[in-house]
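# step 3/5: fold
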Amino acid sequence: MTTEPRIHVHEDPAALQSATAERVIARLNQVIGEFDEANVVLTGGSIGIGVLAAINASANRDSVRWDRVSFWWGDERWLPRGDEERNDRQAREALLDHIPVDEARVHPFPADGEGLTLDEAAEAYAAELAAAAPDHLPLPPFDITFLGVGPDGHICSIFPGTPTVRETVKTVVPVRNSPKPPPERLTLTLPVINSSARVVVVLAGADKASVLGLALAGASPDEVPLAGVKARRRTTIHVDRAAAADVPQRLIDPGEFWTSADER
């Protein structure tokens, strides 16, 4: 990470999820109020899906004009549509099936068994991103990108020491021989993640403390992919106390999550 992110430490995973949910709701209302729409990139993992469930449980959930939110995914397991391990199914069960989304604005990755090869699926999702972008740009204007983090420091399906970490041209790439099952996946690349106005990283547990510490200390993205994350405007990391064990005190920010008067 080449600029210092804001670190918010929460007592436990439940508090992390609840606080992040409320701040995301507030930000979505702000963005939609200004631009009449918002683009959000979702993540999988227990904490990321837990944040979505916390949004669903929030008393403020219905303050958001959900039909103005476009949902994308950071990565996906190459499994059949509806498989319980797919990130899109988990996101639907946690939140999307409970809110009035515009299905035309929900953009899951292609699935195994739908007639595309893994490479073709990556190209198809890249084309879908480009089709939703303004002025022939390659990407929509992402307002919030959620990221979970693995114990090895991987984000999305960008794993340490793999060519995907160093990809700078393609927006979507196929992943084979993933060190974490299933072996085949699809993922956005680091430049896409870093095109987002805001990146919200969520992680919990003592097994994440060392990789977070390494990322904050300036490790190379090849060693710790999390270290390569740098949002256009702000990167915010929400952690529980266990995951914060190696975070320098000077980086812990007790202040506000987002300011109210900034650009998209």
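# step 4/5: annotate
Confidence is low (pLDDT under 50) at residues 255-263.
# step 5/5: archive (pending)
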